[in-house]
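Hey all, quick one. A colleague (J.T.) asked me to put the magnesium ion job into the tracker so the inputs and the structure tokens live in one place instead of scattered across chat threads. No bug as far as I know, just bookkeeping. Sequence used:
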Amino acid sequence: MAAAKAEKPVGRISWVNGPVVRARQMTGFRMLEMVKVGEEGLIGEVIELRGDLGTVQVYEETSGLRPGEPVTGSGALLTVELGPGLLSRIFDGIQRPLEAIRLASGTFIRRGVDVPRLDRSLRWNFEPRLKSGARVTGGEVLGVVQETPLVEHRILVPPGVRGELAEVASAGSYTVDERMAVVTGEQGERSLTMCQEWVVRRRRPVLERLPPSIPLVTGQRVVDIFLPIAKGGTAAIPGGFGTGKTVTQHNLAKWCDADIIVYIGCGERGNEMTGVLTDFPELKDPRTGHPLMERTILIANTSNMPVAAREASIYTGVTLAEYYRDMGYHVAVMADSTSRWAEALREISGRLEEMPAEEGFPAYLATRLAEFYERAGRVKTLGGGEGSVAIVGAVSPPGGDFSEPVTQHTRRFVRAFWSLDKELASARFFPSINIIDSYSEYHGSVAEWWDTAGGIDLGELKRQALALLREDYKLQQIVRLIGEDSLPDEQRMTVLAARLLKEGFLQQNAFDPIDMYALPLKQVRMLQAILRFSELGRVLVRRGIPIYRLRDMETLTELRRMKSVVANDRVEMIDDLLDRLEREMKRLFPLEEWEPGLTAEPAAKTAEIAEELMAGHTRDELYETARERNIPGRSTMSKEELARRLAETEAGSREEEEGP
Ligand SMILES: Nc1ncnc2c1ncn2[C@@H]1O[C@H](COP(=O)(O)OP(=O)(O)OP(=O)(O)O)[C@@H](O)[C@H]1O
Ligand SMILES: [Mg+2]
């Protein structure tokens, strides 16, 4: 935002309509050029040029602006400044640090305040990573700066720059304005500082797009297990008023395993942003123990700020995210709420008297949404590393009606859709994500990760859990008509197990110190325990054990509470709980013969088959067979274990063939 020089074109305001201003004498301007409007120099962008007449959208409050006042060009498009000093800061929609604005203008923010976007007074300890004489291209790491204790900021050669490093600064402390390197190339000589500008509406280039095969682990069980999102993926959280969009976004921002978080508060009430401002500085990263703010950038554009800046805040946020991606980080962007941005588009479009499309939104609404979500992705960076930007947008359909345009268009561009349910929310069942209406297209892409990293075939667990939920969903319709008591015990067992799954697993309290986030291992163990209860319970009920005796089991109460009792680093407590569950079942119901699979010991027959298998096959061959038979956790098993698990399946199928 350099001060306008004398040769910059100057137009004259002819018409003011809220955030939209028209001016004459605008022939010297470019489309989307950043301009200063009026005596106070309010920041705006040229959005239409027709002959001598230009239209500008203004990112600050325009009251008091009068015809005749100047519109001054900058010669540049709306940009952000990229460099150290972004993390743990709060910016407005056009990247002005709120703290600096406050210092410059007092608590009541004055308009047209010109504050530097990156702090000029800070000195950063630079460590070069390249020597002079090296050939460089855009995206390479020139040197590093420890931006916060959590994050190393990699100073990148800007995209498009190529040549020989004629000069590099030696290790030492510098401000973002000092010259750090000189590159000589075909374009001549170019000096580089630690900061670079980038046009917000333009994507930063990458070498290659990669498939989204690593999950973004969020710590929210319903998401991670049933509706996963990948690093570099996209998700929408649509939900009516008060259904938990903001709390869900906050949860993701707090606990997801991205390296960097960009949180865009877009047009929501100020107090929701205050929640972030007061909460975040106190939160600690569960993996490092450091304050979460050290990896977070907040962009605040609340409902009392000018509507036009909502659009800028979205672009600013995603550009900052791409910049950290290019350093080789996994970044997650939260935007709350994209509906407020769409409403701003509608308002501006209305003032421009454009032809409206559905419900008054401009016809280009879909394109804008698509352009935003398309900036997500997992990529090979110009520097050759790997990074990603995941985007999670909240959508607030008026009246919770998902058929409105913003929800419908968003649905086309995201691959995970977490639909919030009014009924669940009013029953205080949080997160109020309705599994039946929601979906994720990332199940297949992240399966391999769970299998190799977690050693767990999550697919099988998910199938069982979903089957249980689906069966329960059908039964609930009957229950509503005739009551649970009239169901046969076997179906009541399904209802009992499904309730345990819903209340003990899917429901997760954002304000419970233990339950607020769950690491993958805890999630899986919990699910295994619940399904084990379901499996054993069914066998017993089939053997004629009355359902009420199962319902009164002590260990069932423990299963219900394990989410807020078992800490993430005490997962072995669940194994112990499972032991006690089986013992309690056996004590309560001393059946003569427990069916195979109900005892911990493999049957003698299984051991024999395992011996046979071991003798004739290599581990690779066993693994292949295990893969065909879909044995959970196969990739981390030893040869012995693989043989034993294979033998079990074989013993099972032989028994079926032989019959009882
Ligand atoms: N995961 C959760 N755990 C516990 N409580 C929750 C959870 N999610 C939401 N809530 C409760 O629901 C309330 C409303 O949630 P939230 O403010 O996130 O809704 P919203 O959809 O963002 O609403 P609005 O449409 O007003 O923006 C919260 O104040 C909180 O009490
Ligand atoms: Mg909200």
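Adding what we noticed when we looked at it: The first strand starts at residue 10 and ends at 17. The chain has a mean pLDDT of 88.
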